[in-house]
Amino acid sequence: MRAGEDVVVLRAHSADAGALLALQQAAYQSEARLYDDWTLPPLTQTLAEIEAAFATTLFLKAVGNNRIVGSVRAALASGTCHIGRLIVHPDHQGRGIGTQLMACIEQAFPEAERFELFTGDKSMDNIRLYRRLGYRQYRVQDLSAKVRLVFMEKLRLDPYPLTLQ
């Protein structure tokens, strides 16, 4: 896929779990190198765990040229939409796919009063993206001796529904 080619965001289904796991493992290689930690949860998550998550979590996928090139997932609890694992294949980063996925996941939860996510404190590209999208840091938490998580939140401004295919 080249810059300018169309990417469509769709609801993912459990049949996509294998492709999502492969994408997740490819996307998190750079994070593992950055933190020198190959035991990050996205790298140790199993296919069975992803398949089971479909029961309680909405997964979106970005598809370009008939391949999944990005994904994000979220679940709602007590008015908060918990967003996780925004991933874009390394060969497709920097083309707005992450921004598109974030817009779609927020729109998919019109009842959410706030959105919450986290990333590593050394993941400056992620932090810049989330700040650009209106998120602000509200706490930090150590995941391990090597990884500190930055939790960010955003309050809903203009709720509007999105119909996913």
Main sheet properties: 7 strands, mixed
Order of helices and strands: EHHHHEEEHEHEE
- The Rg value, from CA coordinates, equals 15 Å
Going across the biggest sheet, name each strand in turn.
1-2-3-4-5-7-6
Helix content: 25-40%
Count of helical segments? Answer: 6
Report the portion of residues in β strands.
25-35%
From the spread of the alpha carbons, the general shape counts as globular
| CATH domain class of the domain at 8-115 | Alpha Beta
Which structural class fits the helix and strand makeup?
A: alpha+beta
CA-to-CA gap between the ends? Answer: 22 Å
Q: Mean of the pLDDT scores?
A: 91
Instruction: Give the low-confidence spans.
Output: none
Assembly classification: single chain
CATH architecture of the domain at 8-115: 3-Layer(aba) Sandwich
CATH H level, superfamily name of the domain at 8-115: Gcn5-related N-acetyltransferase (GNAT)
